[in-house]
Each structure stands twice: as structure tokens, then as C-alpha cells.
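Private note to self, pasted from the team thread so I don't lose it. C-alpha cells:
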């Protein structure tokens, strides 16, 4: 995201109820170092605590305390023993989470090794700083070209809920009201206010606040007010979005238009919006609040039909998706049936103008999340002149974790998943009620030219502003997901993701790590969604849909794999990412059920995990199987992942070479053209028996094998620092500057330059934020 001077900024810090994960654990004697995040350990050991939001010396006892998220490996959802241990060390507990088996709290820095030595502690991370990633939308994405359902019902997101976790939503803006003038912001909850209610700014010692926080967060989770009570439940704040970012995001996802010029219509203009405030008036917040917000949404997604979550924010992605609390909470949300959309981040270039690879933030590092980069639509509906923005964060993901063997696992996922318009988009301006904007809007006040760029005629509660960044690209995809789920409510989150990728239009020249599968094509995505059966999710959750089962709706066939709008006809890219580093294609992806569409399953190379969601019993207000009571993660059992008819095209892309534009550096459009040309897929083939997860292997040993025991290549594997083919040394003799070495066990410095002119970032921490592109966008 842009820096504080030029864009939005989020300060995320939180704990997640991390589902118990069967990662190999180290012995108590070895546990302290691998389990404690490196920057946390360094800060705790420093003679003088560094100046950060998550560490301070308490004046009462002169001891150093840290705000932490502790990810647990425990069968007890209340984490009672761990909470007691924290209190015994003089710390406090703020939250215990549902979405991830974890807690948030404050502990003495000196107690970190003792806590890490516990067998029920998986990882300890600080409440890190994070940066916000910060009509034309309808026309350029194809949303305005969608045919009606059955020839009569508009595909506009009606009946689908989108939760926006951000700085708030101006519920009184005309863009966010229906035709009768009633706000479509159905509910609002403020976790910023809740966390600020903690004594001493959250630094109070020796108290357990988790029970009160949980009670407030889960009150009436399964009850949706109706009639007059529904009106009473709607938001009423006179200063709903004092920072001004969340309102723009919400309007791009679901704003209505047609009442002024330029038209600010969003992608799903009839969708319901849920305002989950996790960022304060300065655009900063805590990860603990984001996790609490995800918990709140998960507990209401069935009763309120919230199907989509938008996270236009990115936290520092140092820790692997296996243990990162925000990634794990997003994974739990996916397992509960929610489509989670996240901004990739705005760290695509450094201060010197070098292109940076490897700067995807969390939760964009999570495999189940739809991670969105930003492309530049050039302020025009046709796509002939569209380009990738230079600021959009590139893949691969560089987060990591140390396993019990002492080896470092680096995620190295192909990201982003796709891109969407994210340059100079028009959105609604938040304001203090009945006062003209930018009153009550820090962002618009700080950057008045963002409003001036839209024009001088700005009627009250109709004001618009211009904004750039992956944070405005993400809600384009969130709105698209709502359209798909209206057109076909039975889609699972990974099936939504696959449809959006397969139908995308690759931009010329941009490679897989820059644009993923290509630019979102909503027209094609909705047509493909309408061709599929509408009971996939229910059958998957019931366990009655087997691999290879027919996926097409009765009387339906696959649509023509090309789209026409804005006077242009183009072929779909026909690529889907799976397993972290594999490229898939073929009609079988959508004519037959693939087990990877199970939203409770996560597969990355040799790791396969499964989340089990359990629900509370019925009560007078809530039916059974409505409100989740626990989400538990464990290793997946032996099963098929893909059917034999699905085609791998890893080999068609070639070995990784930045200079020759091969492998992950192949332009997505080039790869798509090769698929359309009927080329022989050298190394990319359908295995006779599909993929089967080997049985009886540990997490550190699992490999994808077929029934003959043949070990498959792990797709595009990126070892410590750059792109490596599996088992090979760096291609073309690429070297690193200033004595950095690519070898297991060496920690890479952030932002070093590779010989071919590429910069590889380790994460999207503060260093990346300093070089983010201006919110004003590019030409």
C-alpha cells in the first residue's frame, strides 16, 4: 500500500483462534527460537525497546511488555491453560478467537521463551504494523454486459451480503442506498471502539478480558432482525467513516450509480453491505481487531447470507500461511463458506524504481484467498490500452516457517490470483452527516485533489473521489463474487476463484507473477457460473459429491470460451492455479467435480490440510447448523485432488528464466495463446490416475504421488530467494548483489537486487510501505 504520506495506512495487530494444526512441533528445549517471530525476539532482547506499537516498558514495574498473537496447538477451544499461564506471568488476555485457534494479549517480553516452550503454543507473533492497500468499473469489467437470469432477473448482487472490514462505511451516501432511499448497509459493528475500551490502551496487566469481548462479539450471532426491528438494526452513526477509505471500497464493490456524472456505479449495486470497522480515524488498527471482525462475520454468514468478505489491507507477511494468524483466520472463513478477497499490496516498486518481486502481504499470502493485483484501465471502457500498474505487488509469496527438522519452509505461492482495475477509480466520499465532504473524512481532507479530480459539482451525500491502489482493485473482485453467487448460490469459494481465473483476460506482456491469470472478466465468469449445478456447496458439505461427478447443470453445456463487450472480442485465458505452484487447464475443470473445490481443503505442494466446521445447537432464535462453534484444522487424509482429465501445463511454461521470459516469467497471454494453439504439452499432462495424496506420511514428508508411486514435480518451486526449478541450481547463473547467498538456512535481506534487474522483497513490512505508489495513481 502507499506510504503514510501518499496513501492509506493500517496498523494491524491481533490474535487469531487458530484451528489446531498438526504441524510438527519442536521439543521445549528447541521451541523458543523457531516459535517466536524473529522481529519479536530481537525487540524483546534489545537493551532499549524499539519504538513500535506492540512493545513498551510499563511504568508500574519497569518491565518490557509486548502485544502478541499466540497461535495455539490445543484441543481446548477456550485455551484455558494457556490463558492461565499468561496471567501467571503477569500478562493479560484480550481475545480468544473462533476463526483460528489463537489468542491476543499482552505478555512480559522475558516470558516469551517460557511460553514458546509450551507444547500447546505453535507460534508467537507481534501485533504488527500493516499498510492499507489502497460507470467505468461496470463497463471495463464486463459487469454491464451480463445477460439477465432467465431473461428477466438482473444480475446485480441482490440478496448477497458483502462484509467490508475497513475504516467504516458512510451508510447515508446515496451510492449506498436502494431505489427507495434506504441504506443497503445492513449492520455496522465497531471493533476499534471495543478494543479502545480496554484499560490503559490494552496494556493493562493480569486480567482476562476474553469472555467479555467474546460475549459482545457473538451477541445474537444467528439472529437476523426483520420488519421494524431490521430498520432499528441499521447503522446510525453521524461520523461513520472518519478516515474515508472504507466508503470508497464499499462503493466500488456495491455502489449504485446513474444519479450523476461521472457514474459511480459499483460492480454489485444491489448487494447488502456489512460494515465491520477495524481501522480508526487515522486509518490504523490492530490485527486483533481484524481477526475479531472475521469471527463476527463467520458467526453470521449463514443467518445473514454474508457470502463475501473484502479485506483491502495487507499486514507484514513474514510468517508462513501455515501459522500466520490473519491467513489462518481467512482460511477458516473460507472453510465456513465465505469468499475472501484480499488486496495484494502496493509494493511493486522500490524507491529507485526497480521492480520488486515477492512482496505480497497477509492475508493475500493465504492459498484460499483471492489475492487481487491492480491494473490500469486508462480511464476508458475498452481494454486495448490497459496495462499493469507498476505499484501492484508481485508474487511469489515469501513468508516462511521453521519446521521441526530445522529446515525453513518458504510458501512460494503463485500470486496474485488475478488483477482488476485499480488506477484512478471513482468511489463515494464519506462525510460527517449533513456536512459537505471532506468534513469528517481525513483522507479527502489530506488529499483534496482526490475530490477535485472528479469535478467541482459535488452535491451533499453524493460526493465522489478518485483513488488508486490494490485496495480499490480488491472490491471489484468482491463485487464480482457477489454476482456469481447470486447467479449460482451453490458455488464454493474455490470454485468461484477458479471461475474468475479461467475466464480472465491476460494482459499482453505481463507475467504470471505480475498479473496472475489476467484481468477479471465478469461477463464470462457469470456465464460460466450459470452453466454449473447449483447444489455443489451443499453436496460438498454433505460429503455426497465424488471426484469426477458431473458439474454441469441439467441441460447445460460449457459456454463459448470468449467474451464480447466494449466492441472487443477476446478469448478467455483458461488457466487455474492449484497446489501453490501448478497451472491447470481443460474442460474437465468445469464439466466434472474436482476435489480441490472443497472449501475445507487446502493444498500447497506436499501440504494438505482440512478444516472441520462444527455448529451450535438450535436455540429459540437460531436454527441448528447456522452459527459455527469451532473450526479445527488438521492434516487431510488420503484422497484424490484432481481427476485424470485435468491437464497440467507447468511444462508448457518451461523452466524458470526471467531473461527468456519462461516459467513463472512467461507472459500469461503467451501461455494462453499456446493453449489455444493446440501445442503438445511437454511435461504438462493428465496423469492416468489423477493426483492422490500419499497415505501415512508426516506433514514434512508428504508428496503428491499417483497410484504407481511416481513423485510429481512440485510445480514451480521457488527456493530461498529466487525462482528455482525443483532440484536444480539457479538458472542462467543469476547472482545476488552484495554477498547474499541462496542457500537453505540463510535469511534474505529485504529489497536486494538480482542480476537481471529484479528486486525480491521478503514481505510487505514498513520498508515496502515507504516505497508504495501514490494513491493518486499512474497515467
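Design output:
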Amino acid at each position: 500500500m502507499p506510504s503514510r504520506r501518499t496513501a492509506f495506512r493500517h496498523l494491524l495487530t491481533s490474535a487469531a483462534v487458530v484451528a489446531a494444526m498438526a504441524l510438527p512441533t519442536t521439543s521445549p528445549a528447541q521451541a523458543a527460537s523457531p516459535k517466536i517471530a524473529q522481529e519479536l525476539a530481537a525487540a524483546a532482547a534489545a537493551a532499549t525497546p524499539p519504538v513500535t506499537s506492540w512493545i513498551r516498558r510499563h511504568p508500574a514495574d519497569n518491565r518490557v511488555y509486548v502485544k502478541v498473537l499466540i497461535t495455539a496447538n490445543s484441543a481446548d477451544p477456550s485455551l484455558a491453560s494457556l490463558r492461565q499461564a499468561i496471567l501467571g506471568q503477569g500478562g493479560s488476555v484480550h481475545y480468544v478467537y473462533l476463526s483460528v485457534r489463537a489468542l491476543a494479549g499482552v505478555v512480559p517480553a522475558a516470558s516469551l521463551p517460557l511460553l514458546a516452550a509450551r507444547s500447546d503454543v505453535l507460534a508467537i507473533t507481534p501485533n504488527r504494523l500493516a499498510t492499507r492497500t489502497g460507470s467505468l468499473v461496470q463497463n471495463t469489467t464486463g459487469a454491464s454486459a451480463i445477460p439477465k437470469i432467465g431473461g428477466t432477473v438482473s444480475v446485480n448482487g441482490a440478496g448477497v451480503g458483502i462484509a467490508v472490514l475497513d475504516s467504516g462505511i458512510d451508510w447515508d451516501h446515496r451510492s449506498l442506498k436502494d431505489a427507495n432511499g434506504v441504506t443497503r448497509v445492513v449492520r455496522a459493528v465497531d471493533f476499534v471502539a471495543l478494543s479502545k475500551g480496554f484499560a490503559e490502551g490494552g496494556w493493562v496487566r493480569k486480567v482476562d478480558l476474553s469472555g467479555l469481548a467474546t460475549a459482545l462479539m457473538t451477541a445474537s450471532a444467528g439472529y437476523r432482525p426483520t420488519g421494524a426491528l431490521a430498520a432499528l438494526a441499521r447503522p446510525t452513526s453521524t461520523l461513520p467513516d472518519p478516515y474515508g477509505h472504507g466508503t470508497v471500497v464499499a462503493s466500488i464493490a456495491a455502489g449504485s450509480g446513474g444519479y450523476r456524472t461521472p457514474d459511480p456505479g459499483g460492480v454489485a449495486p444491489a448487494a447488502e453491505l456489512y460494515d465491520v470497522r477495524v481501522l480508526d480515524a487515522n486509518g490504523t488498527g490492530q490485527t486483533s481487531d481484524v481477526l475479531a471482525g472475521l469471527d463476527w462475520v463467520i458467526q453470521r454468514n449463514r443467518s445473514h447470507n454474508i457470502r463475501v468478505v473484502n479485506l483491502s489491507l495487507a499486514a507484514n507477511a513474514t510468517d508462513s500461511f501455515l501459522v500466520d494468524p490473519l491467513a489462518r483466520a481467512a482460511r477458516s472463513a473460507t472453510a465456513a463458506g465465505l469468499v475472501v478477497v484480499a488486496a495484494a499490496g502496493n509494493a511493486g516498486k522500490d524507491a529507485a524504481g526497480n521492480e520488486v518481486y515477492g512482496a505480497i502481504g497477509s492475508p493475500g499470502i493465504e492459498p484460499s484467498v483471492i489475492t487481487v493485483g491492480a491494473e490500469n484501465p486508462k480511464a476508458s471502457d475498452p481494454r486495448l490500452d490497459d496495462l499493469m500498474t507498476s505499484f501492484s505487488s508481485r508474487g511469489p509469496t515469501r513468508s516462511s516457517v521453521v519446521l521441526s527438522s530445522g529446515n525453513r519452509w518458504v510458501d512460494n505461492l503463485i500470486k496474485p490470483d488475478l488483477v482488476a482495475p485499480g488506477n484512478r477509480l471513482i468511489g463515494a466520499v464519506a462525510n460527517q452527516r449533513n456536512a459537505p465532504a471532506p468534513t469528517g473524512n481525513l483522507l479527502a481532507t489530506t488529499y483534496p485533489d482526490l475530490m477535485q479530480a472528479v469535478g467541482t459539482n459535488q452535491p451533499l451525500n453524493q460526493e465522489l473521489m478518485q483513488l488508486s491502489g490494490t485496495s480499490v482493485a480488491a472490491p471489484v473482485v468482491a463485487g464480482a463474487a457477489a454476482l456469481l453467487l447470486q447467479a449460482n448460490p451453490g458455488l464454493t469459494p474455490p470454485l468461484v476463484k477458479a471461475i474468475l481465473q479461467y475466464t480472465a483476460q491476460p494482459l499482453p506482456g505481463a507475467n504470471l507473477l505480475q498479473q496472475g491469470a489476467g484481468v477479471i472478466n465478469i461477463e464470462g465468469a457469470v456465464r460460466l457460473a450459470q452453466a454449473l449445478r447449483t447444489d455443489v456447496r451443499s453436496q460438498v458439505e454433505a460429503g455426497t459429491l465424488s471426484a469426477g461427478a458431473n458439474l454441469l447443470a441439467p441441460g447445460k453445456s460449457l459456454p463459448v470460451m470468449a467474451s464480447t463487450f466494449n466492441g472487443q472480442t477476446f478469448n478467455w485465458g483458461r488457466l487455474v492455479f492449484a497446489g501453490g505452484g501448478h497451472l491447470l487447464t481443460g474442460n474437465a475443470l468445469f464439466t466434472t467435480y474436482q476435489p480441490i473445490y472443497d472449501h475445507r481443503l487446502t493444498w500447497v505442494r506436499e501440504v494438505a490440510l482440512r478444516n472441520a466446521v462444527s455448529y451450535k445447537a438450535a436455540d429459540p432464535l437460531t436454527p441448528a447448523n447456522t452459527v459455527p462453534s469451532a473450526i479445527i484444522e488438521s492434516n487431510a487424509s488420503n484422497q484424490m485432488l484432481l481427476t485424470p482429465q485435468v491437464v497440467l501445463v507447468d511444462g508448457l511454461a518451461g523452466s524458470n528464466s526471467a531473461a527468456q521470459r519462461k516459467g513463472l516469467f512467461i507472459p500469461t497471454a503467451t501461455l494462453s495463446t499456446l493453449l489455444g494453439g493446440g501445442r503438445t504439452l511437454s511435461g504438462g499432462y493428465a496423469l492416468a490416475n489423477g493426483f492422490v495424496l500419499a497415505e501415512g506420511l508426516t506433514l514434512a514428508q508428504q508428496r503428491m504421488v499417483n497410484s504407481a508411486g511416481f513423485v510429481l514435480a512440485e510445480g514451480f518451486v521457488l527456493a530461498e530467494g529466487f525462482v528455482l526449478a525443483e532440484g536444480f541450481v539457479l538458472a542462467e547463473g543469476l547472482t545476488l548483489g552484495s554477498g547474499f547467498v541462496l542457500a537453505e538456512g540463510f535469511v534474505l535481506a529485504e529489497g536486494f537486487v538480482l542480476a537481471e534487474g529484479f528486486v525480491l522483497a521478503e514481505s510487505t513490512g514498513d520498508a515496502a510501505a515507504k516505497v508504495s505508489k501514490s494513491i493518486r495513481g499512474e497515467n
